[in-house]
């Protein structure tokens, strides 16, 4: 798996270089994050963190060299208590994660930067990023913070996966396994891949697992193996296509953040 380009890795910069950096209010600082949690018997614990690192590293390589953007050291751990009954999962409390992200962000703000992207690949914590972003922007109105989910950009998975997989294959299924075959193939054990979908979900109901009207769940409610989806269907070819599409979209997203200006309500615009 490729790591970040050396000239775009924040931790490789020196303090004087950061102090003297021009146009810091538009420099894009990106915090990649994931989780260390079970992903069935065929994938390693690092899946979510590896996806953030791999997609961001290749996106920064593809990014226009005139756009200043830097990756922070990855935050590997996350809020993963929905997987806590499975061996190997490491989880932080929501309060801990809020504190870690808030302290990191305030440090970035003190250094003079005003654009911070939180790049998350773990489905169990987007709400935490949204809370942190909203609270920090309320505290520092000139601080632009973007709580982002790696998969929530145009990508090839929509065209490569079945309808059932797109709805239910949310953990260690076809998409994540295929992508890991592209990023860390030596860590994928396809001979241990399984197919498992949740049973007993509400039928003919407005309630569902992760829609607009979700119910609370933990993984042992839905899966014996720790997998939700068809990992057996995964291929390196699909993974390469998904990765290329994510990289293209994320390079565009970083450029959009660089160009972004915070909307302001001013003037006489009332009708």
List the defining traits of the structure above.
Rossmann fold, four-stranded parallel sheet, 271 residues, 9 helices, two-stranded antiparallel sheet, alpha/beta
Distance between the termini: 54 Å
Report the helical percentage: 25-40%
- The CATH class assignment is Alpha Beta
CATH architecture: 3-Layer(aba) Sandwich
On the 0 to 100 scale, the average pLDDT is 95
Total number of beta strands:
6
CATH fold category name: Rossmann fold
Q: Order the strands across the largest sheet as they lie in space.
A: 2-1-3-4
**What are the segments in which pLDDT stays under 50 over at least 5 consecutive residues?**
none
Q: How many discrete domains?
A: 1
Order of helices and strands: HEHEHEHEHHHEHEH
Largest sheet: 4 strands, parallel
Q: What would you give as the CATH superfamily?
A: Creatininase
Brief summary:
37% of the residues lie in helices and 9% in strands. With 271 residues, it is α/β, with parallel strands linked by helices.
């Amino acid at each position: 798996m490729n790591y970040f380009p050396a000239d775009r890795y924040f931790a490789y910069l020196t303090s004087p270089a950061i102090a003297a950096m021009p146009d810091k209010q538009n420099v894009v600082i990106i915090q990649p994050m994931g989780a260390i949690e079970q992903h069935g018997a065929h994938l390693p614990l690092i899946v979510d963190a590896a996806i953030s690192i791999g997609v961001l590293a290749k996106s920064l390589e593809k990014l226009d060299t005139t756009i200043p953007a830097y990756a922070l050291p990855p935050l590997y751990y996350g809020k993963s208590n929905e997987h806590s009954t499975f061996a190997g999962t490491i989880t932080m409390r929501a309060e801990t994660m809020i504190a870690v992200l808030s302290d990191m962000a305030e440090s970035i703000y003190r250094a003079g930067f005003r654009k911070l992207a939180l790049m998350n690949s773990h489905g169990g914590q987007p709400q935490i990023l949204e809370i942190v972003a909203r609270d920090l922007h309320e505290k520092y109105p000139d601080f632009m913070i973007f709580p982002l989910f790696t998969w929530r950009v145009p990508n090839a998975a929509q065209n490569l996966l079945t309808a059932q997989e797109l709805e239910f294959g949310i953990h260690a299924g076809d998409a994540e396994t295929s992508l890991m075959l592209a990023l860390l193939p030596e860590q994928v054990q396809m001979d241990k891949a399984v197919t498992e979908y949740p049973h007993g979900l509400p039928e003919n109901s407005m309630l569902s697992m992760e829609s607009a009207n979700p119910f609370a769940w933990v993984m042992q409610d839905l899966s014996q193996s720790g997998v939700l989806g068809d990992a057996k269907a995964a291929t390196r070819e699909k993974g390469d296509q998904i990765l290329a599409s994510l990289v293209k979209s994320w390079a565009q997203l970083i450029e959009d953040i660089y160009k972004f200006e915070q909307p302001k309500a001013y003037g006489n615009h009332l009708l």
